[in-house]
Amino acid sequence: MIRRTAPLLLLAMLLCTPLWADEPEAAPAPETETPAEVQEAEAPDELAVREAALNERAEELEKLAASLTEREASLVQQEQEFAPKAAVLARKTLENNAASAVLTGRESQLAGRENAIMERERALAWRETVFAQESQKFTEASSALAGREADLAKREADLAGREAELNAKTSAKEAADQLTAREAELVKRESALTEREATGNRLAALEEELNAKQAELAGREEAVAGRESAVGEQEAKLAESTKKVTDHEAELAQKESALTARESELTAKNKELDEHTAALTAREAALVNKETEATRKAAEVAEMETLIKELPAFDPDNSTEAAMILTYKLPAARRRELITMQRDAYTRYSSNRVTQALESYTAAYEAEPTANYLAAYWAGLSAERLRGRRDDALMWANRALEINPEYKPAQELKRRLETPARTNTQQRRRTTR
């Protein structure tokens, strides 16, 4: 953009300068030229020189930036070439984890340096963005200045044409009036020149910024040179590390072959040990099962012996004691539960809580309805003691006899419950006769 605007600025200066030089000849009194007119004639030349110098410096900075971009591109290419090597080195390091701790430390250092390089590249990109923004501002300012100068040159050209026409047609009085008007116009032009001087000051500030950017680019160039030297050192270290890794891989290959042979031997031994362990585990499990069964049977026998010692001898077809439940063909734990339920129900029965006793005996019977005829018998006794429950008592007696037809207490209970009914029937028949 600077290269495009610079020729336009120079052309505008060259077009404006002859107009300013011809204006004093058209005046009626050249000897009365004011210092402002002298400054007006000299100022555009100084501004054009300064702008030309700025354009030259801008071109130099662009060339320097282009060379720096090329060097950065070559550095990026070198880093891209370096990336596959680093990946190969990382893969080898992962495969030989146990023996390459030193190499891993060096690779971590290299990763830190790469991060530092990336940070510098990001800073460089940010600075380039700032430089582009400042260049855009300078270009916009230069374009605005060129437009204003072009407008001023056009206005001055129109003024010169009008002055020439007025000089040819008017008299001396009109020339004096025109001179007055021209003086007023010169005052305006002086203000315009003042504004241009302010623009020149802004250009000077931009020049200072360009100098600072040039210094910054020089620093970037030094940083890039340092990065190139660091990359060269890293490549040398990488080559040395690769050689060490290759030698170490050969040693590890030998060790691996020896370990493979050793592993096959240990595998065979482990297989034998697993077979022995499985056999021992099976034997231990069988022994544990036998011990558990023996313990359970011993507990059942001990419990049965205890109950038998505590109670007198009983007959399963005649006894009404809770210990008779031991004759049931049920597991010991289940028999213990039924004995506990029988004793709890008898406690309620003996304390004259017959309704609760009937409920407890019913629960004990329902726990084992195919075996617990003792609970059915006691449920029948409880129902017999309740008013209006004779039929229920007979039902319970029948249930007990369904389980054990030889159970004499249930037979006696059934006989007792049926006798009053037979007597009443006979009395009703005699009365009818």
Overview of the molecule:
- This protein has 433 residues and is an all-alpha fold.
- It is built from nine helices and no strands.
- The radius of gyration is 61 Å and the shape is elongated.
- It starts with a helix and ends with a helix.
- The model is unreliable at 17-33 and 423-428 (pLDDT under 50).
Rg: 61 Å
Rough outline: elongated
* Number of E-type strands: 0
**Cα separation of the termini:** 146 Å
Our estimate of the beta-strand percent is under 5%
Number of domains: 2
- What composes the largest sheet? none
How many helical stretches?
Answer: 9
Q: Unreliable segments (pLDDT under 50, ≥5 consecutive)?
A: 17-33, 423-428
Element pattern in H and E: HHHHHHHHH
Average pLDDT, rounded to a whole number, is: 78
**Multimer state:** single chain
User: Which structural class is indicated by helix and strand composition?
Assistant: mainly alpha
Task: Tell me roughly what share of residues is in helical segments.
Answer: over 70%
